[in-house]
Amino acid sequence: MLDNANQFIQFLDEIARARGRTTAVFRDIRIMHGLTEVENVVLTAVTGASHPPTVPQIGRSLGHPRQVIQRAADALVVRGLIGWRDNPDHKRARLLVATAEGERLRHLADVAGEERAALFSAGIDPELLAATVAGLRTIRESIETNLRVIGEQAEPDEREEA
Q1: Beta carbons of 98 and 106 less than 8 angstroms apart
Q2: Cα 97 to chain center, whole Å?
Q3: What is the DSSP string of the chain?
Q4: Whole-angstrom distance between the N-terminal and C-terminal Cα of the chain?
């Protein structure tokens, strides 16, 4: 019989190992465009968003501290890759929007990334990849739900520390 907690730990280990490998595979593309890893993550989040995100939204969705995302966003603004827009729903949390240059850079990185992905995915069944993506999405959504439930159950003092 499989132990859910043990399998979850093994799952996390495999995710960490895969993350390390994929970071190495795409590192030179990111460096070629002069982006740090976090700047690349923020630019991808902004250009791929259906609605302009805020720094806290990006941080929460990717599990990064707001301050880390803020520094990366500020650096991208200085480079002219993203800009700020007033947020009608919040006075201090401004919206992030990609500039034309940011969209162009993201497109170039995506083209290079697709070529690299084709090389490194050779021999992997596309059906297996699709099923794995669906499974990972389901697991991520479950974790997000559990985080919300646990957060709602926490004592007020514990929520402030988190």
Answers
A1: yes
A2: 16
A3: ---HHHHHHHHHHHHHHHHHHHHHHHHHHHHHTT--HHHHHHHHHHHH-SS--BHHHHHHHHT--HHHHHHHHHHHHHTTSEEEEEETTEEEEEEEEE-HHHHHHHHHHHHHHHHHHHHHTTTS-HHHHHHHHHHHHHHHHHHHHHHHHHHHHS-HHHHHH-
A4: 34
User: Nearest to residue 76, comparing CAs of 50, 109, 43, 116?
Assistant: 43
List, for residues 87-146, the tens digit of each pLDDT value: 988 878 899 999 999 999 999 999 999 999 999 999 999 999 999 999 999 998 999 899
CB 79 within 8 A of CB 98: no
How far apart CA 71 and CA 76 sit, in angstroms, is 9
For the record, the structure tokens of 58 come out as 């990006």
Alpha-carbon distances of 2 from 97, 128, 152, rounded to whole Å = 46, 22, 29
Contact by Cβ (8 Å): 11, 139: yes
Global model pTM greater than 0.85 = no
